[in-house]
Amino acid sequence: MIGDALKAADPETYAFCRAEERRQDETIRLIPSENYVSKAVLEASSSVFTNKYSEGYPGKRYYEGQQVVDPLEQMTIDRAKALFGAEHANVQPYSGSPANLAVYLAFLKPGDKVMGLALPMGGHLTHGWNVSITGKYFVSVGYGVRKDTCRIDYDEVRDLAKKEKPQLLWAGGTAYPRLWDFPVMASIAKDVGARFVADIAHIAGLVVGGAHPSPVGVADVVTTTTHKTLRGPRGGMILCKTEYAQAIDRAVFPGLQGGPHVHNTAALAVALKEAAQPSFKDYAHQVVTNARAMAEGLMAKGFQVVSGGTDNHLILIDLSNKSVSGKVAAKMLDKAGIELNYNSVPFDTRKPFDPSGIRLGSPSITSRGMKEAEARQVALWIDRVVSQPTEDVAAAVRAEVQELTKKFPAPGIG
Ligand code: DSN
């Protein structure tokens, strides 16, 4: 819980912090890119390192007073390398998008060609989508998923790559519920002379927990955020082979960023230590088990789960066979204390701001200790609200949600 100093100095901001604590404690949070960090991670991220400038890297800084920061950042780098089995780690990116931009800066010139999973098919903005700087400053080609399976067809990706000859090939996305075949993507990149980058922002925690194959050592570079399934503070990280270390480090600083956010480095160090504990493996596997239980519960109620299920932490639902759009469903579920996001589904006929789908996932409920029984209950609540999207039904479900959340205190809050 947030402290007394804030309460005394700024009651308004304190009230917002307390209200958000309560909101996160009393709701079922299903946005697949979110989680609950531990109290230890919260403490480190609000530490005095927020006062310090540290442009440069350990042992080579442009400011004095690095007696404590240098060993902290080096320890964080070493923990990241050990946890992921990487040859090199850069822990300074402010988040996932800057981490990805650093890859472009390290390897490409404006006008070069990149290929990634298209945003409407579940990809990320920074993998070359047209409204992103990555689609404006680079020539971008998007691959998709098969219409019949909603899965990536690696033969199609290979054919497209051979035709287009990108310099950079991305794997990874924000709404792809299936496993990635990193060795096949690496072989496609090799065939066409492209660098292969795996963006594991969504699945980093599953990777270190052994619930998803790792691209480390397979991809030339791996980027990630640190706050999703990895359960760390907001931030980004880049892992790569030694041969790319200098190019990546120079791209992050001074290429793109100034001083790293050292309070986040400290919090990341804590999260990496937590993720190295045996219990984190159980967590990662339970995330997948819970997502599957929720997906099965939803399919049993007639929901169209994109690709017919999930292999990871997220579920994408096409509501075209229901009476509500993704946006209406998401807003009514929010009133019911169930937080998820509306999302395009592959081949969506509706616009991105009012799409056909919703996206949900299991990282946060699993961090609260919920298991399959609770995941199935959540599916039943979603069905009730989507089938009868009225204020009364939402209020009734909200009361039941609050009963359940009381039994599973939220990490860092409850
Ligand atoms: N905004 C993140 C997500 O929700 O998946 C991706 O950047």
Question: Could you characterize what this model shows?
Answer:
The chain contains 16 helices and 15 strands. It has helices spanning 4-9, 11-26, 39-45, 69-84, 96-107, 133-136, 154-164, 182-192, 204-208, 242-256, 262-275, 278-300, 326-335, 363-367, 372-387, 391-407; strands spanning 28-29, 56-57, 60-61, 88-90, 113-117, 139-143, 168-171, 195-199, 221-225, 236-240, 304-305, 314-318, 338-339, 341-343, 357-361. The strands form four sheets. It has a seven-stranded mixed sheet with strand order 4-10-9-8-7-5-6, with helices on both faces. A four-stranded antiparallel sheet has the order 11-12-15-14. A two-stranded parallel sheet has the order 1-13. It has 414 residues and is of the alpha/beta class. The longest helix is centred in the last third of the chain and has 23 residues, at 278-300. It is globular and about 60 Å long. The structure holds D-serine (DSN). D-serine is lined by residues 33, 96, 124, 174. Residues 33, 96, 124, 174 line the site of D-serine.
Q: Determine the structural class based on helices, strands and strand pairing.
A: alpha/beta
Shape: globular
Strand content: 5-15%
Q: What is the fourth-level CATH superfamily of the largest domain? A: Type I PLP-dependent aspartate aminotransferase-like (Major domain)
Question: Major sheet: size, sense and barrel closure?
Answer: 7 strands, mixed
Distance between the termini: 8 Å
Count of folded domains: 2
CATH architectural label of the largest domain = 3-Layer(aba) Sandwich
Uncertain runs: none
CATH topology of the largest domain: Aspartate Aminotransferase, domain 2
Helix percent band: 40-55%
**Count of helix runs:** 16
CATH top level label of the largest domain: Alpha Beta
